Every structure is written in C-alpha cells, then in structure tokens.
Amino acid sequence: MRLLLHSWAGLGLITLAIAARPQLGAAQSPTLTVTLQNNLPRVRSTGLLADGKFVGLMRSGFPLRLHYRLELWRERSSWFDQFVREVTWDAVARNDPLADDFVLIRQGGAVSRYATPEQLAVALEIPYTVTLRPSSSAGGRYYFVARLEVTTLNDTDLQELSRWLSGDVGPAVSGEGNIGAALARGAQRVLVRLAGLPRQRLEARSPTFRTGGQ
After folding, report:
1. 160 within 8 A of 90, measured Cβ to Cβ
2. 64, 35 in Cβ contact below 8 A?
3. Residue 188's domain spans which residues?
4. pTM for the predicted model, two decimal places
C-alpha cells in the first residue's frame, strides 16, 4: 500500500513536469524519413525535441524510449502488397541530474553523453543504415515502411529496458521479483497514462526500388 501511495503522489510530479516544460529553440514538426543508399534503407528522425516537452520530462525524471520498426514490402499488381519481414531496435534517452547532462543508450549497450539537449537532439537525428534487403532470388518492386514511437518511462521501466538493451534478461521477463514491487510498477504505468504524458508516433515510406530484373 505504501508503494501504491508513493505512485499516486507521483501523479502531481507528472502534472508539474508537463506544465513546466521548457522550449528548445524554434519549434519544428517532428519528421521521419526513409531514403535509399544502394537499395539499403537509411532511417532518420528529426525535430523530436524541438518543442521542449520531452526535454522537460527528462529533466523531471521521465526517460524516453524510442522504438523503431522497419518493414520490407513487395508490391503486387493485384490484391494487397506483400509483407516480407521486419527489424526493430530501441534507444533510451534520459537526463542525469548529478552530472547535469543527457545520456543516450543504444541497443547493444552503447552509451553516449551530451552536455546539452541541443547536442542530444543532433545525435538523435543521425540516420540508421539498416541491412535489410529482399532475397537475391526474389525479384520485383519493393519499398520500406518505417515507424517510430517515442514514449516516456518510469525508473523501473528504465532499469528493465536498459538491461534488455545490454542483452540481460531481467525479472520482468524471467518472472522473478517482488509482487509488491510489480503492483507498484503497474500503478506507475497507469499514472503515466492518466497524466496524459505525450507520445509521438511517426511513419514514413521509402521510394520504390526494383531487384532481380523484373
């Protein structure tokens, strides 16, 4: 019960974090693009921190999870296009109040630090080149669809996701852990949803390309 009461108390902090979010330069609309380089996709997001709302939440203790999904599709002249396969990857961005900087954790465990939110914003705009292509024996016309979802995390979510990014299976996956702590985590997630913390969903499609001479 004490853990749940602490979670409900956090609702006020969430509301204050949203109301007091700072602005990060001139606001621009977030975008997601997929370009082709030798028929390999390059996924790039821009403007994610432009309006300051996510920066304010990070400074208030709510890290960001960036979940990317890239799908390969084959065009078909009749019926619907054919889904071929997909790849997904994640990154986490958070504020370190002790060091007064921002931390970016990429899948695989790579950790980078940035002194200002502007520097973090530039890092988030670096394109991902993904090795995803059609089978060499399957000719035709193809395209990629990229999706990005940016959501906020509480402290426990961050610990579990950070372990997963580093390749460690945490208690949430193994089924171990304290039941009371699990209830508190559930309450925290409910509070995050009730508080209306911002979420960002973006989608983009690449140009169509041809393989196999068809």
Report:
1. no
2. no
3. 2-132+140-211
4. 0.71
Per-residue model confidence as pLDDT tens digits over 99-118: 999 999 998 888 999 999 99
Q: At 162, which amino acid appears?
A: S
57 φ/ψ angles, rounded to the nearest 5 degrees:
-70, -40
Question: What is the average pLDDT across 25-45?
Answer: 88
Distance separating alpha carbons of residues 7 and 211, to the nearest angstrom: 54
CA dist., res. 125 & res. 123, Å (int) = 5
Q: How crowded is the C-beta side of 184, counted as CA atoms within 13 Å?
A: 18
Tokens at residue 111, please? 């950790």
DSSP state of 96: E
Locus of tokens 């007064």: 100
Instruction: Quote the number of domains for the chain.
Output: 1
Both tokens of 24, joined, read 């990060």
Give the span between the Cα atoms of 144 and 141, in whole angstroms.
11
Return the SS3 of 214. Answer: coil
pLDDT grade, residue 199 (50/70/90)? confident
- Please give the Cα distance from 96 to 103 (Å, whole number): 7
Q: How far apart are CA 78 and CA 178, in angstroms?
A: 54
pLDDT of the residue at 100: 93
Looking up tokens 């890290």 gives 63
